[in-house]
Amino acid sequence: MTTTHSSTTRARRGRPGYDRQTLVDLCVKVFNRHGYEATSMGMLADELGISKSAIYHHVKTKEEILESALNEALDGLEAAMEEAEQTDGSAQTQIEAVIAGAVQVLVEKQPSVTLLLRLRGNSEVEAEALARRRSLTTRLASLIGAAQAQGSVRDTTSPKILARLVFGTINSLVDWYAADKSAGAEQTAAVLIDLIFNGIKNP
């Protein structure tokens, strides 16, 4: 029996086709390519090659996909922060652990972190995610303040500004880091730690 193109298409588009995590991962890539606000469920279906009902098999709304991706990124970053805060040693050692942990999360979850960094706060889900980001900055600022008190970090700039600069440096990786062209997370983190604490001036 010969299978027609139309019957093959109906079979492919009539079932979910992806597990939930794979579907979310693919949708995040579409969000990053077109922008979350500009992406409709119809666009997602077309990009993934499945029907909208196949997407609804796993999620109820587009915002549920967004929330899942943001939680993935933020849960990873918060876990890295908590681990760094519990690291034995000086405040500088803890800051270095924050940098290393954040870089690891970004490399492993680059699409979801990229989506997080592009939020505008236009919904309750986005606003909550941005609040969690601000909390991470506040926690890093606390470590930087402790490092200033210990004399390992300059005290001519406020801890909050320095925390924003540190996270800004790490976050820039979403624009240029490529797994097939860049060094791994550990080496990249080591370079950033050296630059953040020692600058680019030749010693």
What is the fold's blueprint, element by element?
Blueprint: H1 5-13, H2 20-34, H3 41-48, H4 52-56, H5 62-85, H6 91-108, H7 110-117, H8 124-150, H9 159-171, H10 173-176, H11 185-198
GO molecular function, one term: transcription cis-regulatory region binding
Domain HTH tetR-type: 17-77
Keywords: Coiled coil, DNA-binding, Transcription, Transcription regulation
Notes on the protein architecture:
The chain has 203 residues and is mainly α. The chain folds into 2 domains: 5-60, Arc Repressor Mutant, subunit A (Orthogonal Bundle), CATH 1.10.10; 63-198, Tetracycline Repressor, domain 2, CATH 1.10.357. The chain contains 11 helices and no strands. The protein has helices at 5-13, 20-34, 41-48, 52-56, 62-85, 91-108, 110-117, 124-150, 159-171, 173-176, 185-198. Helix 5 (62-85) crosses helix 7 and helix 5 (62-85) runs parallel beside helix 8 (124-150). The longest helix is centred in the last third of the chain and has 27 residues, at 124-150. The protein is elongated, with a radius of gyration of 21 Å. 28% of the residues are buried.
